[in-house]
Design goal:
67% of the residues lie in helices and 0% in strands. The protein is mainly alpha-helical and 141 residues long. Helix 2 runs parallel beside helix 8. It starts with a helix and ends with a helix.
Length: 141
């Protein structure tokens, strides 16, 4: 299965079957795409990382990817300074691509009490694809 199809299928499954938040969904998809297992306690740490527990602050799609970058590149013994620089460049490029790092600005049509579940599914797929390609390009360089 091609990575775009995988991402679309996996995101839909994680959102609707498991009601997983966007940060944990990002971690799961990146973990599987890079064949890099993540321990359960890391997923537990990401429980509230969907706009800071729903506060609508930094998007969980950014937070989950930043966590993955730290885990993935530290496992390859990359210097901490380099990892911090990668995170900075990721945030910078994400903001250029999507217009913001904040959940309240990225979410389609904002927030209301009547929002359907997982309104960010399309955005999630695009963001995970962006994150995957960003990380892959660094890993290959």
């Amino acid at each position: 299965m091609e990575y775009r199809e995988y991402i679309q299928h996996k995101v839909h499954k994680l959102y609707y079957r498991y009601d997983m938040n966007c940060a944990r969904t990002s971690l799961t998809c990146l973990s599987e795409l890079f064949q890099f297992p993540i321990r359960k306690d890391v997923y537990t740490a990401a429980l509230g990382m969907h706009g800071a527990g729903g506060y609508r602050a930094q998007c969980g799609l950014v937070e989950g990817t930043l966590m993955f970058i730290g885990l993935y590149f530290s496992a390859s013994y990359m210097d901490e300074k380099e990892i911090v620089q990668i995170c900075y460049h990721f945030a910078e490029e994400f903001e250029q691509e999507f217009g913001s790092l904040r959940c309240r600005e990225l979410r389609p049509s904002g927030f209301s009490e009547n929002d359907p579940p997982h309104m960010c599914e399309a955005l999630t797929c695009r963001a995970i694809e962006f994150s995957y390609l960003f990380i892959r390009n660094i890993a290959l360089s």
